[in-house]
Amino acid sequence: MRILVTGGAGYIGSHTTLALLEAGHEVVVVDNLANASAESLHRVSELAGRRAVLERVDLTDEAGLEDTFSEHRPEAVIHFGGLKAVGESARIPLDYYYNNTAGTVALLRVMARFGVKSMVFSSSATVYGDRNPYPYTEDMEIGAMNPYGRTKEQIEDILTDIGAADDAWRIGLLRYFNPVGAHESGRIGEDPQGIPNNLMPFIAQVAVGRREKLQIFGDDYDTQDGTCLRDYIHVVDLAEGHLAALEYVTEHPGVHRWNLGGGAGTSVLEMLRAFEAACGKTLPYEFAPRRAGDLPAFWADASKAKEELGWQASRTIETMCADHWRWQSANPNGYAA
Ligand code: WQD
User: Fold this and answer.
1) Pocket test for ligand 1, best of 220, 260, 268 (most atoms within 8 A of CB)
2) For residues 96 and 151, is the Cβ–Cβ distance under 8 A?
3) Is ipTM > 0.95 here?
């Protein structure tokens, strides 16, 4: 199939683009490169032995999207494009509502005009908010606690309403937990701009000498070692989940939701120790005050994806750390030369 991938130059987008190319699909990436490098796609093409076309278009540029659809005639869309930092979203909420929510509406309007009604959407476990018992299941009431999460929730609602109004739409909503790791080649990986918000890239940058020490936000949570538990999932497992969801929605009209997670919690300290084992170094850290908005623990019930998509996360924490370290140690400054 000809697949248009928004945000395809980004971390999860580039890994999914590689998996699509390897599965024989043609891929057109739409990315404004605001938070990604075109180098990631050069390397994806090198790894796949086939090119992914890059169209540098902003999702809010409806005319630019029209030109892209007119030229490339995609048959389905995998939609990653958007801003994704929880803390930043509280500081500049309007940018998040414009880029994420309004940008998605522009994309959907162009898709409808070109008769493209298959979409896999990158949603997030953050939509579950702080009211649900874990493990989270897809039928739970959602309620995000920050502007970033609310844009994901709004987009899920928009897609649900579109699917209810026109049963020609085939939509998969994928709620990710915590993506980490990198392709085994070490050629592509996570390259956050500025100081990493997330745990794994921060640990990796300490290991490679870019950051002085890890600050662990809170050691007094009601967990086995006092640090928060999260459901970490290897980014290649995640990419494979997108291909499984695309295949499913191609056969099944309607709107479908799946958690993409491993189904278990790993603590911050456990992840730090696993990364030390992977990089062969003792990594400096200190305990710091809790971070506002952090939940003590949550993880996925991923049984629906297993039953319906035949998909489950398979790569271990050790593999996540080994692959992440191979990428970071080979690319200390990410994609920057
Ligand atoms: C994990 C744990 C931190 C950094 C976020 C988004 C979510 C999704 C995934 C997009 C927490 C601790 C972190 C550090 C630390 N993103 N930590 N020191 O918060 O579970 O989820 O990323 O969809 O929407 O909310 O991930 O990696 O930021 O934090 O101690 O320097 O690591 O307190 O307990 P989180 P995270």
Assistant:
1) 268
2) yes
3) yes
Query: Is the shortest distance between the CB of 68 and ligand 1 below 6 Å?
Result: no
CATH number corresponding to 2-180+233-261: 3.40.50.720
Domain with CATH 3.90.25.10 in the chain: 199-229+264-305+318-336
Alpha carbon of residue 280 to chain centroid: 28
Beta bridge mates, 29? 5, 54
Rounded to an integer, what distance in angstroms lies between the CA atom of residue 95 and that of residue 92? 6
Please, where in the chain does CATH 3.40.50.720 lie? 2-180+233-261
What is the CA(78)–ligand 1 centre distance, in A? Answer: 24
Average pLDDT (3-7) is 98
Nearest CA to ligand 1 atom 4: 199
Q: What is the pLDDT of residues 113-165, one digit of tens each?
A: 999 999 999 999 999 999 999 999 999 999 999 999 999 999 999 999 999 99
Check pLDDT > 80 for residue 337: no
Confidence at residue 86, expressed as pLDDT on a 0 to 100 scale: 93
The CATH architecture assigned to 199-229+264-305+318-336 reads Alpha-Beta Complex (3.90)
**CB 311, CB 263: distance < 8 Å:** no
